[in-house]
Amino acid sequence: MQIYINGESRDVAGQFTVEDLVRELSLQPPRIAIELNRKVVHRNEWRETTLNDGDQIEIVHFVGGGGLPEREADHFLFAHQRVYSFL
Predict the structure, then answer these.
(1) Within a domain: residue 16?
(2) Is residue 23 part of a domain?
(3) pTM of this prediction?
(4) How many structural domains are present in the chain?
(5) CATH number for the domain harbouring residue 63
(6) 14 phi, psi to nearest 5 deg
(7) Inside any domain, residue 13
(8) Residue 21 belongs to what domain range?
(9) Of 23, 24, 26, 61, whose Cβ has the fewest other Cβ atoms within 10 Å?
(10) For residues 10-36, average pLDDT
């Protein structure tokens, strides 16, 4: 079956869950967020959420950084980067 991860096509064999995908890609669960077909998949749903042919998956890896925020609103912003290392 063919899925799309961060816009890149990837073939996977058999039935995969989100949890299987995280394991296959050697990702660190506490530092990532996953969106499946434009809906966030919460970590406690990864095991039962199966992937289907044509699914669009976005994986965001949260990173810390920098000094103190310049504005109060910045406290609510997270730095992030897409995870491309597995492609």
Answers:
(1) yes
(2) yes
(3) 0.71
(4) 1
(5) 3.10.20.30
(6) 75, -165
(7) yes
(8) 2-82
(9) 26
(10) 92
Paired tokens of 80 = 């992030």
Non-local (6+) Cβ contacts of 33 within 8 A are 40, 59, 60, 62
In residues, how long is the chain? Answer: 87
Q: How many CA atoms lie within 13 A of 83 on its CB side?
A: 22
> E-strand spans in 1-87?
2-5, 8-11, 32-36, 39-41, 56-63, 79-82
Q: Tokens 């296959």 — which residue?
A: 24
For 56-79, write each residue's pLDDT tens digit.
999 998 776 555 555 444 444 444
Cα–Cα distances in angstroms (integers) from residue 43 to residues 2, 34, 35, in the given order: 23, 8, 11
Domain assignment present for 87: no
